[in-house]
Amino acid sequence: MSAFSAVRILFPPVVAARSAGEKPSAPFLPSLAVPGLTRSPLRAPRLGRPLLAVSSDVLSGQKPLGSNSSPSSHAAVSREEALVLYEDMVLGRVFEDMCAQMYYRGKMFGFVHLYNGQEAVSTGFIKLLEATDSVVSTYRDHVHAVSKGVPARAVMAELFGKTTGCCRGQGGSMHMFSSTHNLLGGFAFIGEGIPVATGAAFSSKYRHEVLKQSNPKGLDVTVAFFGDGTCNNGQFFECLNMAQLWKLPIIFVVENNLWAIGMSHLRATSDPEIWKKGPAFGMPGVHVDGMDVLKVREVAMEAIGRARRGEGPTLVECETYRFRGHSLADPDELRKAGKLEILFI
Amino acid sequence: MAAALQTAALLSASPNPIDSRRFRLGSFARSLPGTRASFLVVRSDGSIPNSFTASSRSEKFITNAVATKSNAPASSTASKPGHELLLFEALREGLEEEMDRDPTVCVMGEDVGHYGGSYKVTKGLATKYGDLRVLDTPIAENSFTGMGIGAAMTGLRPVVEGMNMGFLLLAYNQISNNCGMLHYTSGGQFKIPIVIRGPGGVGRQLGAEHSQRLESYFQSIPGLQMVACSTPYNAKGLMKAAIRSDNPVVLFEHVLLYNLKERIPDEEYVLCLEEAEMVRPGEHVTILTYSRMRYHVMQAAKTLVNKGYDPEVIDIRSLKPFDLYTIGKSVKKTHRVLIVEECMRTGGIGSSLRAAIIDNFWDYLDAPIMCLSSQDVPTPYAGTLEEWTVVQPAQIVAAVEQICK
Fold first, then answer.
1. Dehydrogenase E1 component domain: from which residue to which, for each copy (chain A) (predicted)?
2. Could you tell me if B178 lies within 8 Å of chain A, comparing CB atoms?
3. Structural domain span for residue A62
4. DSSP class of residue B174?
């Protein structure tokens, strides 16, 4: 899984070999060894250069380290940052696996949509946001909530319908909200969160221009997550237009996992390259490998920077894949193992 | 006599505990055959009031409309003579006062800015407040209504204008799912202080699609509050109240009422969103109405008075929730109810109101509740046909005569 293999600790001049033995003890983690990050303390690099984790492009030789950009720029993260990203993604995966277990044991009900496989997108974007930035999601929102800082306990309690849940048990799986963490939902119908996100971005611009409340870091940014199916919906296009028209500080993140329940993206869309729809409205459209957290993070940094400076919205298409069905009730018969789309993982 | 009853009602509204049996005037009148609306008014301390001064009115009493000359009370124009304006100007005045008072109040909609609004409700506001505060949106109702909701969740107080209420059908997804429900599904974490307003109702040959009555479609949405204005006085008061409310409020205006002229007070006033308005106190029948039909009812009332009837006319104003207190008081007095509305017969406000009255005041009714509504047809273009789909004063007169037989 390249999301995890992307994070490698580089010991110059040789890449560390895969660690042989230690399997993680938690039963729901996939049984793969994450190279380099074992429990034994890492030895300090002898050459005095900082430890770096780089994206898989660099390791596969497609992009030489330090050629165009310095090692400390976009493609690289420090060890501390890498651990934050790793923990967030593992937490997201473990959380969703526990949801599946509870559901199939008959302790959780309704429509539960899991995020397994798409963690790099959530972590890549949300871990760059400040507390005052907003996130708007869809029904596949558990991991967005957890990444944004909502305690996993509160999200899980919400899934059990308890009053200790983040929405007092009134919202459920598809309606995760948190005013303290600026998580503006959780929406059950596809596309209906995008105008809400546009409104939050409008508020941010309004606060700056009308109320004259300035933030030294720049405008508060809103990130709207939605899927490939939504990109054929009117609200998507209407909001692309309005966001670019008024240069709102918003990032439209498409989690293109190629499937809208059982409808393949290719069967539903005349031009399946979603990133191209950005320039049609006058905003940059970026395509990124959504399984590589460092690549997503690099693109996110650029898009968030643009929005903060008031340069307007960006459309980011993250090609990703969901390892489970659309929801836990989905028999998921149309996607067969070994089909072409799995090859790009 | 009407004033005595009003005072009796006031006393029942006072905070002092009263013996409710004494105020069962309805059952008292029914037990005496042949009597018709002759009551003995007894105060809770046993004395009979002998003066009904303006000072005995509690501040919770519904202000009288100044629409009819005979009912114009002194209190509404007591201190200053007031100023005359048209209904759309009253809406603008209310909006402007709230925008001056609170910088988070903003307007969004089609042609609200540079054009001044298709019915000129927002004329001049964009010049005064700027293009961001009075935002001209592209033609994308669902999205800009959703944008208003997102803005409301994040600290602003938007007023979203539907150029015609019918266009808000395109925004139904946002109004139902997000506007109405987000406060609940978020466990109370977010409030949606949005006002959605616009002209609706049947105009002059505007065609079927521009003549829709969306109050009947929206009334089931949980979490939404609905009010309908009908005079410049209540238009301004309800606009201000809706903006100040932390709940999502839909303010229904009517295409044909924008040019009504009235003298309204100079001093600031805000009306209560959940209150109905006593237009004409009476004894024989309670006529419940709202928006444009109020004027058809008042026209019919002139004919009815000449024929010897004494109708009590209430403009319900609050379409959701109903002001069952005022309505109930009236039903307990007159025992006969006629509802006159512009909604369709099927699933309209009238049918809900009828059900609510039956549920709550069944024992006080002497006759079945009659409901006059528009026909269940698309509004025709031809003027004569259009007239026939909407309730006319003659039908109201006939209905009252039938109820009061």
1. 88-333
2. yes
3. 47-335
4. I
Quick one: pLDDT at residue B81?
A: 86
Contact criterion met (CB < 8 Å) for A195 and B185: no
Nearest to B265 by CA among B66, B99, B51, B108: B66
Backbone φ and ψ for B381, nearest 5 degrees, come out as: -75, -45
pLDDT one-digit tens code per residue, A117-171: 999 999 999 999 999 999 999 999 999 999 999 999 999 999 999 999 999 999 9
* Tokens 């900082």 -> residue: A50
Give residue A126's pLDDT: 98
Cβ atoms of B357 and B388 within 8 Å: the answer is no
The two most distant CA atoms of chain B are separated, in Å, by 67
Residues of chain B contacting A164 with CB distance shorter than 8 Å: none
Nearest residue on chain A to B131, alpha-carbon basis: A210
For chain A, the domain total comes to 1
What pLDDT, on a 0 to 100 scale, did the predictor assign at position A296? 97
**Domain-located, residue A8:** no
Q: What is the pLDDT of residue A331?
A: 84
Q: Is residue A7 part of a domain?
A: no
For A244-255, what is the mean pLDDT? 98
Give the CA count within 13 Å in the CB-facing half-sphere of B38. 5
Of the candidates B104, B177, B184, the beta carbon closest to that of A170 is on B184
Q: What is the pLDDT of residues A228-243, one digit of tens each?
A: 999 999 999 999 999 9
Q: Does A36 touch chain B (CB under 8 A)?
A: no
Contact between chains at B130 and A210 (C-beta distance less than 8 A): yes
* CB-based contact B173 A198, cutoff 8 Å: no
Q: Is residue A1 included in any domain, yes or no?
A: no
Q: Residue A247: which CATH number?
A: 3.40.50.970
Q: How much is the average pLDDT of A18-47? A: 42
- B-facing residues of A in 106-145 (CB < 8 A) are 134, 136
Q: Which residues of chain B have pLDDT under 70?
A: 1-80
B152 contacts in A (CB within 8 Å)? 199
Tell whether A41 is covered by a domain.
Answer: no
Q: Which of B233, B226, B221 is nearest to B198 (CA)?
A: B226
Nearest to B186 among A177, A189, A195 (CB): A177
A155 interface with B at CB cutoff 8 Å: no
Q: What residues of A are in contact with residue B145 (Cβ under 8 Å)?
A: 195
pTM given for the model: 0.80
C-alpha pair distances (Å), A147 with each of A129, A209, B347: 10, 30, 45
pLDDT at A4 (0 to 100):
39
In angstroms, rounded to a whole number, what is the distance separating the alpha carbons of residues B403 and B180?
A: 38
Write out the E strands in chain A. Answer: 8-11, 14-15, 52-54, 76-77, 134-136, 222-227, 250-256, 259-260, 263-264, 285-289, 314-319
CB contact under 8 A, B146 and A209: no
Question: Which chain B residue shows the shortest CA-CA distance from A180?
Answer: B189
Residue A276 has pLDDT above 50, yes or no: yes
Contacts with B151 from chain A: Cβ below 8 Å: 199-200, 202-203, 206
Higher pLDDT, B41 or A268: A268
State whether residue B146 sits within 8 Å of chain A by CB.
yes
Nearest by CB to B150, from A165, A179, A195: name it: A195
